[in-house]
Amino acid sequence: MILVTGGAGFIGGNFILEWLAENGEAVVNLDKLTYAGNPDTLSTLTGDPRYVFVRGDIGDRTLVSALLSKHRPRAVINFAAESHVDRSIHGPREFIQTNVVGACNLLEAVRGYVDTLSPEGRAGFRFLHVSTDEVFGSLKESDPPFSESTPYRPSSPYSASKAASDHLMRAWHVTYGLPILTINCSNNYGPYQYPEKLIPLCILNALASKVLPVYGDGLQRRDWLYVRDHCRAVAAVLAQGIPGETYNVGGSSEKTNLEVVHGVCDILDRLRPREDGVSYAAQITFVVDRPGHDRRYAIDAARIRREIGWRPKETFESGLLKTVEWYLANEEWTKKATSGAYRNWVQMHYGT
Ligand code: NAD
Ligand code: DAU
User: Ligand 1: distance of its center to the CA of 151 in Å?
Assistant: First the structure.
């Protein structure tokens, strides 16, 4: 069996659903259930003997050590993190606490557990850390995409905390020999994403006749990857990756934020047109820019394609269509996700 952390979040939740459907190996999901953790994502697994949920913090070494010795996993996959850049600007401490201190405590618990394994158990054990392309900082228009050897230059408290966690991973591999794999992935989108992130925020705001807030000039560029393609990359690197190595993952799909928001509007115009016949694009509103906003990210995913044989199944167009369709069909999930804590966030960050 495997231990997944942060599995009630967007990517971890999609990963567990995909893993149990495709692979069937049992999963223990350790999640603190912060505002971003939503057990509803995994409600179809209720009663499934292959799935165990534990509410807890990756920074709680006693708890993690107890879970490891009870379940004896052959692998740990760390999705748990504070993940939203804007929140890290409003309050960086929680990001340091989970993404750095929490990651360190998790590593220490895993190190203690690996020491108890037989030589064969130790040889087969893997720890996969899920990280981000944001650790590399911002690219200029003419720069080549990020490769695995691009130097780290994080810009936000979020990306700095993820960069720190990546360095811890490397150090625990080099110093203690822990078999650690790291993935640095670009922007994910798809079902079950908390609607603080650009794509689900725009879908829900459009339907609620609210503004679609575009930071600055909207010409910042991101590489976009459908979440299930990232999940398949995680499974493939877990199976075939070389311990101590890092793998960049992306969709080769660079878009400006304005292109992304227009893409959402175009699909909604077709699937659920406004009653007045006007395009949802009329709701696009330019708002004050994010401080320290990275201008451009792009990923060179040649290594994982060449060495692991992974490639995305979805194009941006097919993935975005699936995503919008999912949000239209799952209003109950979004209704629950956007109550309470969500409203406070929107009020605090965007004002009225
Ligand atoms: P998310 O915010 O949707 O989910 C994070 C999950 O971690 C939540 O379920 C939350 O409850 C849990 N969590 C937070 N702190 C915890 C703690 N201390 N202990 C246990 N659980 C805790 O995030 P996501 O978008 O699913 O991202 C997952 C991982 O992938 C993160 O490490 C993120 O940095 C990375 N990543 C995300 C993207 C993206 O586009 N979303 C892209 C590349 C990498
Ligand atoms: O690149 C990978 C990263 O992608 C992950 O590590 C992060 O966890 C994930 O949140 C995401 O970070 P971004 O900051 O790129 O995602 P976000 O959806 O917040 O913003 C995408 C772009 O859209 C970014 O340039 C900021 C802009 N934006 C965002 C919001 C929420 C807007 O213009 N308006 C908005 O209201």
Answer: 23
Q: Which numbered ligand comes closest to the C-alpha of 161?
A: 1
Whether the CB-CB separation of 232 and 319 falls below 8 Å is answered with no
Please give the residue range of the domain that contains residue 119: 2-350
Ligand 2 nearest atom to the CA of residue 257, by list position: 23
d(CA 107, CA 113): 10
Report pLDDT digits (tens) over 126-167: 999 999 999 999 999 999 999 999 999 999 999 999 999 999
Average pLDDT of the segment spanning 174-199: 98
Instruction: Give the pLDDT of residue 352.
Output: 59
Q: 133 an active-site residue?
A: yes
- Average pLDDT, stretch 223-249? 98
Specify the amino acid at residue 72.
Answer: R
Rounded to an integer, what distance in angstroms lies between the CA atom of residue 95 and that of residue 157? 7
- Per the structure block, which two tokens stand in for 250? 């992306």
**Count of domains for the chain:** 1
Rg of the Cα atoms in the chain: 20
Q: Which of 34, 184, 230, 304 to mutate for ligand 1's pocket (most ligand atoms within 8 Å of CB)?
A: 34
Q: What is the percent of the chain where pLDDT is above 70?
A: 100
Q: What is the pLDDT of residues 59-93, one digit of tens each?
A: 999 999 999 999 999 999 999 999 999 999 999 99
Ligand closest to the CA atom of residue 36? 1
Annotated active-site residue 82? The verdict is no
Residue 88 Rama label (left phi>0; alpha psi -120 to 50; beta): alpha
- Catalytic residue flag (residue 226): no
Query: Angle, nearest 10°, between helix axes 257-271 and 316-329?
Result: 50
Q: What is the pLDDT of residue 343?
A: 87
Atom of ligand 2 nearest to the CA of 223: 1
Residue 34, domain CATH: 3.40.50.720
Residue 153 sits at φ, ψ, to 5 deg, of -145, 65
